Amino acid sequence: MNVFQLPNAVFLVGLVVQCAIRYHFVQRTKSKKSVRQFDRLEKILLAAMFPPVLLLPPLYVFTPLLSFADYHLASPIRWAGAVVMVGSLWLFWRSHVDLGKNWSVSLELRENHELVSHGVYRWIRHPMYASIWLWGLAQGMMLANWFAGWSVIPAFAAMYFIRMPREERLMCEQFGESYREYARRTGRLFPRLTNAAQPAWALKPAAGPASNEESSPPSQ
């Protein structure tokens, strides 16, 4: 079985750690009242992440069902993926810690929601999304199977490119100029190297509802 390949076993340990981090913060924040929740599209995006993250990797590791999509991955690449995974897990944990009780698994605003701009949010607005991009890269580098390894990338890309603009519009609507100023001095996934302005759609107040999962203020 593929579970006896050490990089696969290390990946499973990382997956357990990731789930434990998320479970801990779900329990910690579930008593916090939401004042604004989101829609059916949010549920679809979250559901689409389940197979590539929690279903296909165990199927690949513990069963032969996905063996038709196996391919050779050099050992140095797989272990480099393990290093990326460790960085992803640290950023995933740190993002939850810095958001505190402002975080939620779905896109919503909490009661007495605050704009978070300390910790890793001092430099980037979406560190949790950055951690999931890193996780997807690590998964592809560690699991030598086209489906189990790389399917998380298109699934998360759909979530990110649909959710992130809505999230930033909500932040502009909720926090006004404070968030727009914050956006001007931070990058989305990487620290900003210049003071160039953000795209207009991200900086202007939005008309109508938007949302948030993890960006600096509200809420993977």
Total number of strands: 2
- Just give the CATH class of one domain: Mainly Alpha
Strand order, main sheet: write it out: 1-2
- N-to-C CA distance: 30 Å
Query: Main β-sheet, in a few words?
Result: 2 strands, antiparallel
Strand content: under 5%
Question: What does this molecule look like?
Answer:
The chain is mainly alpha-helical. The protein has a domain at about 35-50 and about 80-140 and about 150-205: Up-down Bundle (Four Helix Bundle (Hemerythrin (Met), subunit A)). It is built from eight helices and two strands; from the N terminus they run αβααβααααα. It has helices at about 5-30, 40-60, 75-100, 125-140, 145-150, 150-175, 175-185, 200-205; strands at about 35, 110. Strands 1-2 form a two-stranded antiparallel ribbon. It is elongated, with a radius of gyration of 18 Å. Residues about 195-200 and about 205-215 have low confidence and may be disordered.
Summarize the structure.
By secondary structure, the protein is mainly α. The protein has helices at 6-29, 40-62, 75-99, 127-142, 146-150, 152-175, 177-185, 200-203, and strands at residues 34-36, 109-110.
Q: Descriptors for this entry?
A:
elongated; 8 helices; Four Helix Bundle (Hemerythrin (Met), subunit A); about 220 residues; mainly alpha
What is the topology?
Elements: H1 6-29, E1 34-36, H2 40-62, H3 75-99, E2 109-110, H4 127-142, H5 146-150, H6 152-175, H7 177-185, H8 200-203
Antiparallel strand pairs: 1-2
Helix pairs in contact: 1-2, 1-3, 2-6, 3-4, 4-6, 6-7
